[in-house]
Design goal:
Udp-n-acetylmuramoylalanyl-d-glutamate--2,6- Diaminopimelate Ligase, Chain: A, domain 1; Protein-Tyrosine Phosphatase, Chain A; 5 domains; 26 helices; 31% helix; globular; binds pyridoxal-5'-phosphate; ligase; Ala_racemase_C; alanine racemase activity; ATP-binding; EC 5.1.1.1
Amino acid sequence: MTYSIFHIAQLLGGKSLLRTEGNISRLLTDSRSLIFPDDTLFFALRSASNDGHRYVRDLYNHGVRHFVVSDFQSDFDSMQDASFLIVNDTLQALQQLAAFHRNHFSLPVIGITGSNGKTIVKEWLSQLLHNDYNTVRSPRSYNSQIGVPLSVWQINEQNNLGIFEAGISKKGEIERLEHIIRPTVGVMTNIGQAHQENFSSLIEKCREKLLLFTDAQWLISCKDHAVVEKCILESGLRCRRFIWGYDQLCDLQVLGIDKIGKVSTITCKFGNETIIYSIPFTDDASVENSLHCLSTWILLETVIENKPLNMQLIASRMKLLEPVAMRLEVKEGRNDCLVINDSYNADINSLNIALDFARRQAADKQMNMTLVLSDILQSGEVAEKLYANIANLVQESGINRLIGIGTEISKQLDKFNIPQKESFNSTESFLGSGRWKALKNEVVLLKGSRNFHFEQISEQLENITHQTTLEVNLSALVHNFNYFRSKLRHETKIVCMVKAFAYGSGSVEVAKTLQHHRCDYLAVAVADEGAELRREGITLPIMVMNPEPNSFNLLFEYQLEPEIYSFSLLNAFIKAAVRHGESHYPIHVKIDSGMHRLGFEKPDMDELVGILKDQETVQVQSIFSHLAGADSPAFDDFTHQQLDLFKHCADTLQNGIGYSFLRHILNSSGIERFPEYQFDMVRLGIGLYSISAVNSPEMETVCTLKTTVLQVRKVKAGETVGYSRRGVLEHDSEIAVLPLGYADGFDRRFGNGVGKVLINGKLAPVVGNICMDVAMIDVTGMDVHEGDTAEIFGKGRNISELADSIGTISYELLTNVSRRVKRVYFQE
Ligand SMILES: *Cc1c(COP(=O)(O)O)cnc(C)c1O
């Protein structure tokens, strides 16, 4: 559906400068996602960490002519052929437009909220119902103040069911989402601690969420969630209810749940009918999610549409429920390919998101892009039209090579105007052809409906050699970055410390992510690390903390800025810079204010001024010092002494050399505990990895070290496990073997019961000594099998506690994860 820009201008009110006609069918809030400039309307959103107005010029240069702004900046004047709608609040305008769009349609809409399971319930409902309805749903977990309007905007005339999720983090947000979604049927999944920061109690948050259902006709919930039940009863909501739970008063009564092997079988009763179904999951959350889905299904079919219940259909579809891929994973593959596997569903909206993600990866690395795409199974659209739309999207995304898999896409291949294209009737014939070997040094996006089993392709393309991985959640990293940024004044700059392979997480990916999110400076330990970042396209200024004299040429070659901590280093560097013909080369002067590691001391200041004052070879870019105990209140007096001394040295230097430069002293814990000393810049390190000196609950886990069980064996009481016969068994035991040893960074001190790993939701202790490449754990009675995943540290297993158990700190555990452990990056 399209709207003329005039129509939108009228709708939003406010002032407008309408200088071009135009029809709008796409809304854009992230400038990096631009594909079709002609019919795009850009909303310049402002947040604590970014401002969309900054990207208007760039978008204009890329052909966008329609903008919604709140601040008409003088630069916009020169864009004579662009239209600007000027409103007070651009986010509100976006929401207003989406709400208007929603009002055109009378389709039933399922609105889902709650603390956990929203996305899975939504995706499973779509898996269960897509044969019967032409559904439109939120892509991935687009459930925020921005995600919801963008989701609802996708509704078109063909849809006859909408499924949208709503998430909130503070009061007042849900009403805005309610106006946009206007659900007919509400699903309240459950209520838990997630996003609790801005609510005084669970009850308060629950009440707030229920406002999503103010005008709904039906509300589905589980009676056994006491808080939810209490809040609904007190809420005064007018909607009718559909309740499930163990109580016999429930509309859908659960009679029993049996978990055997990898399958749960659920028996329940609806009216006089008994329903028995199985799902291929055994965790409690999946069982709960399936019951929310079943309730919704029953309500839609039997109560709203008045049809008989089809028990066989329920059982046959429930059995096939698939795990929901919550994220796009990037893995290194053979022949230097980057493989992005998004093979859990294929519809045009999620294709759009996956292409956008692939495009950014390819642009960063200047690689070509190949799309492996299956038939798109989407009811309700004529194939000709559907593939014409897909072809358009794929072309505009700059795909260099298309591999179509399936009979339908094979027929439609001529619609794609792409340099290289070929097609195969099935996944097997593609794999059998060996053509996948032709993929070299490119980004490969795998996007297929689940019955095409693209995981077979990804296994072929990925280098599966070592089953231990360090997962790095880049979205969480950005979240933590923004948390620290929110503690600072707007103009304070941030140096992100990406030394030591970015605390083990991989400097290149982390640096790229930070560069995207407007970090101001990077710091590495040695020149080689900085050179690598430059070769990978990092353009931010980079400081080198340990510039050895034999690496000076590398500094000049790659524009790396040295830390200068002594007279001998300073003199040597100036000499080298003169030889290299440099002038005003930026340096960073390190002060020793009490750490007694490196740096000039207070009495050195006069001599330092003497050297720096009358020369133009180097220029002081910043002066800094490092706190020895910023994380601990016990050292606060000492910390204040350090701060005073630093300030004195900085003033002396500035007065002496007569120009100003940046000052910085705070590390991560300093930012949290002494924000009043942020000066011009701060240096953020461990905090990016969710370690907080004040135990802030706002941090998100970034790194997860995981491995896979190689083998499980039964060993009798009295036998021993491992080297030196240290692991003596007191009972008959089941021992699982993990491909993870001290050479991977699993410290030998975790041996003999000290370390515990998380497996099947329980903690299993290490048995015996840890070997170089392997460790054994006791999994007696835990139903562990070959191929199961074990978490060493991460979301389920706090790294600080783990570090404590062997008397070290998280820094060491992170940086010890050896380079042979594969890093897997993802965004949520
Ligand atoms: C590593 C380092 C930091 C970062 O410290 P965190 O405690 O990880 O935040 C800051 N400054 C200097 C000089 C460092 O070497």
